[in-house]
Design a protein that fits this description.
Largest sheet: none
Radius of gyration: 21 Å
Shape: elongated
CATH class of the largest domain: Mainly Alpha
Strand content: under 5%
Structural class: mainly alpha
CATH topology of the largest domain: Tetracycline Repressor, domain 2
Oligomer: single chain
Length: about 210
């Protein structure tokens, strides 16, 4: 029997490391120069590889940019928000809100979002995938948790998808826009906790079950 053709593990690791090296260099160039200003030559220099090597991995600038967005989506999916339906609503909202804003406003995180926003009109499929896999996925997970708690009469929410979006937007208040437009540095954990606590109180004031 002929043995299956397998690429040696060390070559697979080297290939993955080279790809990550290219993506890191390309991310910096896209951040500094924008999509239009970035060239494959500039990206190759920033990544420390030849243009020939760069083209082995990515056919053109569009494919490279899509790979960066895909990597950002994978990184964000690794964040494990705790939406256990057995947990109480206030604790779950507070912990999720803090983790969500820390992820959204992490140092360097705004660059990926700004780049996707800037190119979404020209490459709508990329923008749509980013929204569906990152933002909409998180909204859906929070909405499913709220639906579970509504069935237990812990909250009175007629439209959980809308309520999930509302809570996430309240958590962003005064934090996300200044950060994304580079008018302010990433917010401190203390400031994030203050804003999320306010958002949680407002959310429960509107949707929490009233005694009596």
């Amino acid at each position: 029997m002929v043995a299956a053709d397998r690429t040696p593990l060390h070559l697979v690791d080297e290939d993955s490391a080279k790809r990550r090296q290219i993506l890191a260099g390309a991310s910096k160039v896209f951040m500094d120069l924008g999509f239009d200003g970035a060239s494959m030559g500039e990206i190759a220099r920033a990544a420390g590889v030849s243009k020939g090597t760069l083209y082995v991995y990515f056919a053109d600038k569009n494919r490279l940019f899509e790979a960066i967005v895909e990597q950002e989506m994978l990184d964000q999916k690794k964040v494990n928000f705790n939406f256990d339906p057995e947990r109480d609503v206030a604790t779950t909202l507070r912990e999720f809100g803090r983790a969500y804003i820390q992820l959204l406003c992490r140092p360097g995180g705004g660059s990926a979002i700004r780049t996707v926003m800037s190119i979404a009109e020209r490459m709508p499929d990329v923008g749509r995938r980013y929204y569906e896999h990152v933002l909409e996925n998180t909204i859906n997970r929070l909405a499913s948790y709220l639906e579970a708690r509504a069935k237990r009469n812990d909250v009175a929410i007629p439209e959980c998808q809308l309520a999930a979006s509302q809570f996430m937007n309240m958590c962003q208040a005064s934090l996300f826009l200044p950060f994304i437009f580079q008018a302010a540095p990433p917010p401190s954990p203390e400031r994030i906790a203050q804003v999320v606590e306010s958002a949680t109180r407002m959310f429960l004031a509107g949707y929490g079950r009233k005694a009596g």
